[in-house]
Write a structure and sequence with these properties.
The complex is a heterodimer. Chain A is an alpha+beta fold. Chain A is built from three helices and five strands. A five-stranded mixed sheet of chain A has the order 2-1-5-3-4. Chain B is α+β, with helices and mostly antiparallel strands. Helices cover 27% and strands 34% of the residues of chain B. In chain B, 33% of the residues are buried. Classes of the chains: A alpha+beta, B alpha+beta. Chains A and B meet through strand 3 and strand 4 of A and strand 4, helix 2, helix 3 and strand 8 of B.
């Protein structure tokens, strides 16, 4: 099934893109999908462990099961104010 | 409105003459500084993940009202390119007495800095730029991932 990762903050710079489409097997968890992303884009690997992941306005857990066509926002450590 | 691409307006946040029971009014504004960790800074760019940022800022305001008994709590943050001296964040609180107003205001600003998905990219005099190290907001992260290097004050 197809997913789309959206890159925020420093991830946009590291990836050189705003987003990336990725194919994962049905039944994948968020952790599985992030592992695939790391393999596809090793330059992101060091940051991904410290990223929160959101779908819409909700934060996800690494154990969450993904649905086809999910849009996953990758949120690196925050620094507002 | 929690995030703004245009300059923040303090006047609109003051809610004047609406809280006759509140004698304490606290205002905090955070402005862009011309230096960071010894490096001269020319300007900043703030970006945000708006869906979650707006939800969290709304929840932080509500939590502050409940926690401190401050009936009016509002916070707004700029996004986009900001110059030195531009205001990045305003927080306004009103409470019956000054202690609750101060406490609520300080707490809200800390929560926004540490939990809301907003990022700060600094542009330096030498032409380089960097994202400021921040706080990990991953809820299921191992404890060491929450470590970061900026002052909490």
């Amino acid at each position: 099934m197809n997913l789309r990762f959206e890159f925020l903050g420093v991830l946009q710079r590291l990836a050189g893109a705003d987003s990336l489409q990725l194919e994962v097997p049905p039944g994948s968890t968020l952790a599985d999908a992030l592992e695939r992303l790391s393999a596809a884009r090793p330059e992101l690997r060091a940051e991904l462990d410290r990223c929160a992941v959101a779908q819409g306005e909700n934060l996800m857990h690494r154990t969450d099961l993904l649905k086809a066509d999910a849009v996953l926002a990758l949120l690196p450590p925050v620094a507002g104010g | 409105m929690y995030l703004s691409e245009t300059p923040l307006s303090l006047g609109e946040l003051l809610a004047e003459n609406q809280y006759p029971q509140c004698g304490g009014l606290a205002v905090f504004g955070g402005a862009v500084r011309n230096h960071h960790e010894g490096k001269p800074v020319l300007r900043l760019r703030y970006t945000a993940y708006a869906p979650l940022a707006q939800k969290l800022m709304r929840e932080i305001e509500q939590a502050a009202r409940d926690k401190f008994g401050a009936p009016y709590c509002r916070v707004q943050h700029r996004v986009g390119l900001l110059e030195i001296g531009d205001v990045a964040i305003y927080c306004v609180t009103r409470a019956p007495h000054r202690a609750e107003a101060f406490d609520a205001c300080r707490w809200i600003v800390g929560e926004v800095k540490h939990t809301v998905p907003i990022w700060k990219e600094e542009f330096y005099v030498d032409g380089s730029s960097a994202f400021v190290q921040g706080c990990c907001i991953r809820q299921d992260a191992p404890p060491e991932h929450h470590h970061h290097h900026h002052p909490h004050a």
